[in-house]
Amino acid sequence: MEKFYIITNSEKDPNLEITGKIEQYLKEHKKFCTIQQGERRFRGPFHYTDPGLIPDEIQCIIVLGGDGTLLQAARDVVYKGIPLLGINLGTLGFLAEVYREGIYSALDQLMKDDYEVEDRMMLTGQVYRGNRLLGEGIALNDIVIIREGSLRVVKFNNYVNGEYLNSYNADGIIIATPTGSTGYSLSVGGPVVSPSAALTLMTPIAPHTINTRSIVLPPDDTITVEIGEGRHNREENGLAFFDGDTRVPMISGDKIIIRRAAVNTKILKLNHQSFLEVLRQKMRNS
Question: Which residues, including other chains, have CB under 8 Å from residue 267's CB and lie 6 or more apart?
Fold first, then answer.
């Protein structure tokens, strides 16, 4: 690789000290490198990065921060089709593979083209009130539909390919990709899935039943989640979150239609370890 672009979470690298060292190292090795300029948070359709500012010839985007930073950046740049490498400046992470002490060796591998590229499936979601589109988004990890307001469970009616599946009385529902199986879904009892798999997970959050489990669905199924009415025909309020960031308010009767995205996120893998090896190490250190 010859041409690099750096996206940095300024809260994790406030003075851009690490960012500057990476830029200097790459330029010392006669590589092209540019750093994202401007505010960390963009107004409008972008969350972290304006993809229009990324030169077309860039071959790798280096993301400094943690899994959250990588998720936000991935959603913004996915249509560029450029592989991302995450450098973890935080704590436990499954997406940001490289830690501070391994930065220079990781850069050496990139410059020697010693890496693999993994395609990670994504999800899209559209929220409707009747036939009116309220909002939409894309997610690498998950789309979460949760109650909003007072501490009471909400009824969620679930459909797959237009056919009624079930209803949950719960705090919410997580629709996750294999990448997202190690995120929020895992914390509420969902299974861990290899990121190379192609499937979708549906996991309820704090359901009011004893024997509720995650449901595994084929990747190309269309999932619809509807917020049901409350007791005494009371209107309930909810929120649809895309990777924990973009949110769309919902009320009883609103539906979110979730499908596999037409694009994938490309993640660079350097350590040549199997997913099981990585999982074992992360679980041991968590």
Answer: 83, 84, 85, 86, 95, 117, 118, 120, 195
User: Tokens 């294999």 map to which residue?
Assistant: 178
pLDDT at 34: 94
Q: Are 167 and 158 in contact (CB under 8 A)?
A: yes
| Tokens matching residue 171 | 């705090």
Q: Which residue is associated with the tokens 């309020």?
A: 237
| Kind plus residue range of the DSSP H or E element containing 195 | none
Strand partners, 260: 123
The Cα 258–Cα 137 span in angstroms is: 10
First to last CA, the chain: 33
User: Coil, strand or helix: which one is 52?
Assistant: helix
Contact 76, 22 (CB under 8 A): no
Kindly state the tokens that stand for 7: 């996206």
- The region that residue 143 occupies, defined by phi over 0 for left and psi between -120 and 50 for alpha, beta otherwise, is beta
Task: Retrieve residue 81's tokens.
Answer: 């089709």
In angstroms, the CA 248 to CA 258 distance is: 14
Structure tokens, 79: 């249509």
Helices (H) and strands (E) in the chain, counts: 5, 17
Q: Which residues pair with 255 in a beta bridge?
A: 128, 226
Catalogue the active-site residues: 67
For the segment 44-73, what is each residue's pLDDT rounded down to a tens digit? 567 778 898 899 999 999 999 988 899 999
Are 169 and 155 in contact, with CB atoms under 8 Å apart?
Answer: yes
Listed residue (46, 94, 45) closest to 36, CA to CA: 46
Q: What is the pTM of this model?
A: 0.91
